[in-house]
Amino acid sequence: WGLWRWKALPPKMRELCRDRGIPVRDDYTLQAEPPAGREETVEIAGERTMEPDMAAQEPGGYDVDAIRRDFPILADIIYLDNAATSFSPEPVIAAMVEFEHRYRANVGRGVHRLTSIASHRYWHAHEKVAEFIGGKNGVTVFTKNTTESVNMVAQGLVWKTGDRVITTILEHHSNLLPWRRLARQGVATDSIGISPDYTLDLAALERAITESTRLVAVTQASNVLGVVTPVREIARICHGRGVLLLVDGAQAVPHLPVDVEELGCDFYCFSGHKMAGPTGTGVLWMKEPCIEPLVLGGGMVETVTADGYTPAQGYQQYEAGTPNIAGGIGLGVAVDYLQAIGMDRIHRYETDLTSRLIEMLSKNDRVRVYAPKDPAHRIGVVSFTVDGFHPHEVAQQIDEAADIMVRSGHHCCQPLVESLGLPGGTVRASLAFYNTRQEIDLLVATLDELTR
Ligand code: PMP
Fold first, then answer.
1. From the CA of 52, how far away is ligand 1's center (Å)?
2. Which tops the pLDDT comparison, 288 or 53?
3. Averaged pLDDT, 423-430
4. Residues with catalytic function
5. Which domain-ending residue is among 340, 363, 393?
6. CATH code, 285
7. C-beta of 83 in contact with ligand 1 (< 6 A)
């Protein structure tokens, strides 16, 4: 990456300084003295690879201890709130620190070496993310989060009165409210329900599509029930009827191998911060750049004339203004990290943990679990309630008693939890690739203790 720079001034510059009387130090550096008592060296972990430290791992095995060494925070707590946000491993943090220490500059502007390095790395992060989701033929835009990605599509398509959008009861508010707001433009929303086993009612979805339906917006995995929806079948139905498909992949990308082209969707939205990337990072992938950019300004144009402008090509036209550069670069490293472990292996590992959790929770007759039966239709997001306790009480007590962090409440899915007859919501344990069997066992033991 040519990440070089001068410590001492090159000979030509030394002459120039001498001629102009610009003071330089004896070693021909322009750097200020470091504050007394402080070493000048800046330690960054950039020298190590961006891959998990899995050297000790057996072939084909899953060395969770090696992975956990990259997450020092896991030594102190049991973190089972990964559906809200996940932790970043050391290489992701190191990449962001390296940006700050070594080459912080704006991107897509100017030609000096720092901006070249920053631009290249930021651009490369887009490439890596696109490849990670099988989306190299589309446009991969960096956003703040899933919420922003969905809003960009809802606001960026051109609607007409009478258009309809189909969502489902499983949707997070972030994939519901942007569509509901379109009511102001005369666009109506329909909602599809679920079957008693929590799977999406595909026949109802097919029936709901009419001549007026423009778009179906569906989650690939529920952040409350952990149920996975049949996106490929939904895409077939949509495309047979000339309807666009947006998929909310916030809970799918961290846990399943995802190939957007194979899925057949038109838009795919997800959050970097739920997949070991930095907070403030998200992605909007589009098969075609068919939406209007929501924000205009610097960085998104090719040319600006006296009375018009030509937008840039590719992702740039959707990323006006200075983006979250360190975050974007960090997200690229998160992708490297997950790929080095392998999404297939992560999926298999988490499937085992999830089955163990559901099985063990179900043995306590005061605990009610809300999860699909078939492991093939679920991810490691497990909702439950405990008789006699409000979900918030459970979450607070197991935090105090055992340093276990779980989410409680309606999980930004109020229509769903109301429809399940659970106005107080649920307790939700959500897993990541760094969680362990022992952590699951401890959660269950703590709940058994609580109910005793
Ligand atoms: N969709 C789903 C399924 C989610 O789980 C979440 C986060 N809980 C979101 C959307 C919103 O994600 P973000 O807050 O990163 O925008």
1. 26
2. 288
3. 96
4. 412
5. 340
6. 3.40.640.10
7. yes
